[in-house]
Every structure is written in C-alpha cells, then in structure tokens.
Write a structure and sequence with these properties.
11-stranded mixed beta sheet, alpha/beta
C-alpha cells in the first residue's frame, strides 16, 4: 500500500507546513508565500515576512500573478485571482534535508511590467531533473506596484521582493533538499537586469554565490527621471505620485495608467531621452539607497567579486520587437538614422563606418541590439572582471526557426531553449509551432548542461573571459569557443559608460 506522504510530501517552513506533489520523478511545491500580501497597510511597502499558518497548507497551485497587463500568453490575471502575489515554487528531486543539492533561483523578465513565475514557459522540471538540483521560481511586484517612484514608498520594491525571496531560500531551502550555501540566481531580460541589480545591492550580499544574467538591459533610471515618469503615470489617474494618493486605488487602475502612457512615451523624448522610445515606464532606479549605484559601477568597484558570473546575449536581440511590430525588413533610412543618432556612441557616422554598406534595416537592428542588451551584458562581464571577479561570456547565434527563420537569434529565444518549453508562451512564435528539431533539442540540452554545471561547480564548460583573448561560448548548432564575435560593436562601445538614464530637462 502506497504511503500518502510519498506521493504528497510535507515540508515544514519557518511559517508553517506545506504539502507538495510527486510529479515525473520530482517533488513540486507551488504557491508558498515568502512575504505578506502587499495590500492594505502594506501597499507600496517593503515586503514583510509571511504570516505563520496552522496545519498543513496545500502547495499544489501557483500563486496569483502580481497586477499587470496582458502579456504574450494572454492575461495573467486569468490564471488565479487574489492578493497573495509574493510566492515561491520549488522543484526538487527529493525534500531530504541531508541532500544539500545546489539551488537555482529563476527571476523572470517582462520589461519590469509583466511576468509571473506560474507562466508555463518557466516550468523548471527539466532543469531540476537534468541537473539533479533544486530550482526555485518566484513572483515579484512589477509595473507601478513594483517599480514606479512613489513618494513615501521605498524605491525598487520589486527588487526588495526578490531579496525577500532569497532570504526565504536561505532560511528554508535545506528542508527541500537544497544547499543554502550553493545558490545561483539566473534571469533573462528584466530578470537579468534584476540579477545585475542584486549583484549591486548591499541588502543582497551573501544571499547567492553565482549569477547568470541572460540579455541584461542597459536601462536603469536616475532618481530624477524615475520621479518625473512617476508624476506622469499618476497624472494619468488625476493623482499625485504619493502613497497617500495611490494606496487606495485599485491595482488594475494603476496597470491601466501604465498601459495608456506607454505608447505616448516617445512624445517625451526631449525630457526622457533614450528611455522614451522603449515604451516601458519602469526600470530599476539608482536611488542611492536600495540601489546605490549602477551595476556597472558597483561591479567595477568589486561589489560582488566573490560571486561567479555568466553574462551573455543573443545576436539579433531587437529582431523580436521589430517582428512583433510588423516592421521586419521595413525600416526606412530615416528611421535608422534617427535610432543611430539617439543611441550610437560617436554618432551615426561611427556606425556607418564600422558597418559599411549595411542596409538601413541592419543598422537599425544592430544599434538597438547593442544599446539595449548586447553591450550592457558584455560591459557587465568586463566590469566584474575589473572588480576582481570571474566572468564567463556567451552569445546565442542559433536562429529561431519560426517565421521562416527571419527572427534570427532574437530576444527571449534562450528561454524556451533553457527550459525546454517549446510550446509555451513565446515558444510557438519562435519555433513555428512545429515539433522541435533534433538540433533544437541538442542545443536545449547543452544550455541546461552548461547552466547546471555552473551552478554546481562554477564551470559552465568554457574558459573564463579576459580582456586579452576575449573568449566566449558561441551557442549554435555547432557550439564553438571563439574571440567575442561582435568585435566591431565592441570597439564602438569600448569607452562608453552605462550610467543611470537622466532627466534631460525639468
């Protein structure tokens, strides 16, 4: 006769007992609160410890997503309603306190305005299984709840949520079979920007030991810029950007404010500069407290020199956004020139000289990719190296098969490859809805093998980066280790500093 606890194991956390389920050889716990719901008096506050509960809490379903707009996979709110937004999920080979397996903690992307750990694309089963380790995913506040600069509230509440989740891992993961002394944080896009922020935050020191940053965005707001954007966001509702004005507003109304402002952000280019065309009114804020300086400054000064780092990007990052806007191959010379003038260090002529004869579409894609993801990722690795840390760098060059291959190695392609979730979220768009090829499956296995090897040993399977050889792992059908392939761009951006984006005029 089967022992019921073998199928539904119970683990005791600091706040109370939770019951998980055995699924495909793993034990999975979903929707465990790591903090009190940030509503009522806790609205816009730093996260507070979860209230203890009596008895055994079923951990069978993901917690509700934080308030947000509809994403790629449709409205997040359709999954589960409620205000218990701050939860973690755990995949473990066995909840055995003696196992002490390495732990990987995933932080989702979504432009700091959408995303939730219950998204099907973040099913961590294959990572936990292939790596024989424990994987944790977490929810954090996004949009106005998590990142808008609001008077009377701490900045970067979404980042503070991540710190609270990592503290939960430190205090509880042993009971799930994990080793709190062997924690790797990993994330993509805004998740990678979050990883870069955590590397820079005094509050996060000691909570993780390795970090993987996939496509780090270069957008960090100065406090002045964030306050100005916050004022405009609140004005969408006829209110001031204060806790007193906003705390009683339905979270869905705040989501609407961001939604209506986003497409009008380019009108503010004279005030918000490079931030305006991103149509994303949220980013980590260099407020001098939660985030004292930018990640590049922090790492160069040795802030996380003891944390081993993987940082990398995809070759054709911006192609995803051009495709989703229906503009693939349709970029005019005027639009390319405008982007070059706004983003290129050294101006438009420098890019045209570095890439002679390239059509407008290629120049537009290149400078956008370089400014937003490629160079911030490379510079993060180089800053870490300058500060005495160890960095490994990669570039994904394998082209997505969807859309006739026109997407190239675009933004977010690494996510379904890493998780093996080809049919979830962006997967059908990137892979065309067809069964993944043997080539795709092999690359997917390689991603997981490298990432989990790094989490276990600090060695992803290729040499550490240095400024002499500049060796990086190129992830393609035939992965190779070569000097950094985007040398022309690297030289163009060599002297550039990624600073907090400023407010151009009051």
């Amino acid at each position: 006769m089967t022992n019921p606890e073998a199928l539904e194991p119970v683990v005791r956390t600091a706040a109370g007992a939770v019951r998980g389920r055995r699924e495909d050889g793993l034990t999975v716990f979903r929707g465990i609160p790591f903090a009190e719901p940030p509503v009522g008096e806790a609205r816009f506050a730093a996260p507070r410890p979860a209230r203890p509960w009596d008895g055994v809490r079923e951990a069978f379903a993901f917690g509700p997503p934080p308030p947000q707009d509809a994403g790629i996979a449709g409205p997040a709110a359709a999954l589960l309603e409620g205000d218990d937004w701050l939860t973690v999920n755990v995949w473990t080979p066995a909840p055995d306190p003696a196992a002490r397996r390495p732990v990987m903690v995933w932080i989702y992307g979504g432009a700091y305005r959408i995303g939730h750990a219950g998204s099907p694309g973040y099913d961590a089963r294959r990572i936990a299984e292939d790596g024989d380790l424990v994987v944790v995913t977490l929810n954090y506040r996004v949009g106005m709840e998590g990142f808008a600069r609001i008077e009377g509230a701490p900045a970067n509440r979404g980042l503070l949520d991540q710190v609270a989740a990592l503290e939960w891992v430190r205090d509880n993961i042993t009971a799930f079979g994990g080793d709190p002394e062997q924690v790797t944080v990993f994330g993509e896009s805004a998740g990678a920007g979050s990883v870069a922020s955590l590397l820079s935050m005094p509050r996060a020191v000691g909570l993780f030991h390795r970090a993987i940053a996939q496509s780090v965005p270069g957008t960090f707001f100065s406090d002045e810029l964030a306050r100005d954007i916050g004022t405009v966001l609140a004005a969408e509702l006829g209110l001031r950007p204060t806790v007193a004005d906003l705390a009683a507003v339905d979270p869905a109304e705040l989501v609407k404010a961001g939604r209506t402002l986003a497409p009008r952000m380019p009108q503010y280019v004279d005030r918000w500069g490079q931030a305006a065309p991103t149509v994303t009114p949220y980013s980590p804020v260099v407020d001098g407290d939660v985030l004292p300086v930018t990640p590049w400054q922090a790492l160069a000064s040795g802030a996380s020199r003891d944390v081993e780092l993987i940082a990398g990007h995809n070759r054709d990052e911006n192609r995803l956004f051009t495709a989703m806007a229906g503009k693939l191959g349709q970029i005019t010379g005027e639009r390319a020139s405008k982007a070059l003038r706004l983003y290129a260090p050294g101006g438009e002529d420098a890019y045209r000289a570095a890439y002679p004869g390239r059509p407008a579409n290629d120049l537009y894609e290149r400078v956008q990719t370089d400014w937003l993801f490629a160079m911030p990722s490379l510079h993060l690795a180089e800053a870490h190296l300058a500060g005495g840390g160890r960095s490994h760098v990669y570039e994904l060059t394998w082209p997505a098969p969807g859309n006739g291959g026109a997407l190239g190695a675009c933004h977010a392609l690494d996510v379904p490859l890493l998780f093996g979730t080809f049919r979830a979220d962006l997967g059908p768009f990137l892979f065309g809805g067809a069964e993944p090829s043997a080539e795709a499956l092999a690359l997917s296995l390689r991603f997981r093998a490298s990432w989990t090897s790094f989490a276990r040993t600090g060695d992803p399977g290729w040499p550490a980066y240095d400024t002499e050889r500049r060796l990086v792992q190129v992830l393609d059908a035939e992965p190779t280790v070569v000097p950094y392939p985007e040398e022309a761009s690297r030289r163009l951006w060599e002297g550039h500093e990624f600073t907090a984006l400023p407010l151009l005029e009051p």
